[in-house]
Amino acid sequence: MASVAARDAVFDALADPTRRQVLTLIGEHGEATASALARELPVSRQAIQKHLSSLAAAGLVAAKREGREVRYRLTPAPMSDAVSWMASVGGQWDSRLAALARHLGG
Amino acid sequence: MQQPAPAESVEREVVVRASPEETWRALTDPDELREWLAEEAELDLRPGGELGVRIDGETREGFIEEVSEPAADEAGRLAFWWGEPGSELSRVEIELTEVDAGTRVRVIEAQPLVTVETIVIGEIGPDFGGAAPQMSALSIVG
């Protein structure tokens, strides 16, 4: 499992609705530039660029320069962190509830 | 604009051979919690009350949000926020419903997206004032 700091960065990045829309759009298009995203969302290109920087810092998107353009695509790895959180917390409750059932004579 | 979906959460349930009242006590009485769950357990059982437990050597602290003891025709519900000291809190809701075989215990723990600082310093406040913090969505998945 990745570090708590890395997981915090992912959750912080995902906490913002515009950043989630940015991720959704990049996912739909495969890859996208800040200008292309700004055309589809009601925010400025500068704002999109800031969101892309936070998403890149959290490891959720990767940038690739092509000529004068920077194209962004999704990196799937950090999402599995959310999945591993669910597996770990689910496993903890499985054993806690089993202990509760034993305690109560179930 | 699309509305955020509910946060990702984990849901588990078990049926125990005990009454809702006995099950409630097992979940809320610190002495009984020490028998099956935690090495240490302390809780101030009222909305806004603090809780602290140590489970398998790991400390968790937080606040109680809702305390509804099970009654004749009503399910019991305990909701609280907890997390390791200095880290984000996640919300846990435990519901107790009477069934033929005993009591169904349903637990939902939501993914932590609220920091301790937000709850302690921010507009939410430890007494919650009836309004639990909004959990943000992870609607990009799938």
Description:
The complex is a heterodimer of chains A (106) and B (142). Chain A has 5 helices and 3 strands. By secondary structure, chain A is an alpha+beta fold. In chain A, helix 3 packs across helix 4. The longest helix of chain A is centred in the last third of the chain and has 25 residues, at 79-103. Chain A is elongated. The mean pLDDT of chain A is 83. Chain B has 142 residues and is of the alpha+beta class. Helix content of chain B is 15%, strand content 39%. Chain B has 3 helices and 7 strands; from the N terminus they run βααββββββα. In chain B, strand 4 (58-68) and strand 5 (76-83) form a beta hairpin. In chain B, helix 1 (20-28) packs across helix 2 (30-36). Chain B starts with 8 loop residues before the first strand and ends in a 21-residue tail after the last helix. Mean pLDDT of chain B is 79; it is low at 1-6 and 114-142. At the A-B interface, helix 1, helix 2 and helix 5 of A face strand 1, helix 1, helix 2 and strand 7 of B.
